[in-house]
Amino acid sequence: MFLSVFDIFKIGIGPSSSHTMGPMVAAGRFLDDLRGGVERIPGAGDLYRLGASLHGSLAFTGKGHATDRAVILGLCGLLPHTLDPDQAERLEEEVRREGVVRPEGFEPLHFDPDKDLVFDWGPPLAGHANGLVLTAYDKNGHAYYQQTYYSVGGGFVVTAAELEAQKAAPKDSKPATDGPQYPYPFATAREMLQMGETSAKTIAQMKFANERVLHGGALTSKIDTILSTMDECIDRGLVQEGILPGGLMVKRRAKAIYEKLQAERGNNLAQPHQANDWMSVYAMAVNEENAAGGRVVTSPTNGAAGVVPAVLRYYRDHCIGATRQGCRDLLLVAAAIGGLIKSNASISGAEVGCQGEVGSAAAMAAGGLCAALGGNNAQIENAAEIALEHHLGMTCDPAAGLVQVPCIERNALGAIKAVSAASLALRGDGQHFMPLDNCIQVMLETGQDMNLKYKETSTGGIAVNLPEC
321: exposed, middle or buried (C-beta count within 10 Å: 0-12, 13-18, 19+)? Predict the structure, then answer.
């Protein structure tokens, strides 16, 4: 399965790609089905009311991740990449007050969030930990149309049927005969290295060639838009103050840390490990913005959105010889690695824990930075493996279901690990014991064996060991 750089890096809103962006996208798909004239369930009358039920992790941590708000706005016809925060706030208040949604192309449809949006605390649906069932009803309460969606991480959404088809499909690199034909259709890191050796091209060059099939001459401009959006998110996070929403009373810290670092510039007394503080503050700025519901780029998820942007900013502003093309190559290589992880394992915290989110992001950033600093393909693969290997077993246990504790600091440490992994790989020749493919498989198996309470349900770990106030 080919995943574009723009599948891995999507512009959206916080606080969660799987719990906020995904349900909003699912609601949009549901409306599109209804607009397309789906065949109604036999015996149903005219369309009158909408309903939704959240299952598994979407139910357990949905309030903290604003999943209810995402469903409401999605049924109003809003989408993450174009959402206007001011309009969204007004629409949500209106729906909660009137019990009606007014998506384009429909007469007003009844939807009372207090009655029609159900948090199901029972076992998760069979397909995935993040399940969402949307139903349209007639005036007598008879089901008109129903669809089950799974939010599988990073803003990706599939129906139950699509998920089953993906699971049944053979995992090989043979390109589909009825779709785009990519010049370098690698499905594993091993194939990626083999194709690079055969073609004498870098991973960034191969990824760029694949992307050109879809995006043509607009590709570089689109990559630059992602880079600019990441930069803007950091810049916003570095000037904001106050308490993050949600009730934990977590204080924004990025601005104060940034101001101290700026004051220490040129000070010969500054400690050499100050470089870590710069990486940390960039990552924290992004994840504080995400926690506040701001505009971020999934990298590959919202919960891990700070790692790649932080390493990009560190490369651009602190590394000798940094170039704009280096930034583009970093993003392309990061997307290639993220695509391998997404296709062969998971980037969903609800499925495999935070090793699939921050761990994946660190692997992506490490490989990308290694490429930008001149590493060869073998060193890039080594950098990604080092970073992922040392996140194995990391749980996803957000306090109160909010992407704040431990998520904000976890992104900072993920960025530091990514840079360390890239540096270690550049000191070697690319030869190493554990291949990236094997490490990805270990991550998947570890996540499958992980207790459910440590996979974004807020029923274990840090989430239940909080100070008593």
Answer: exposed
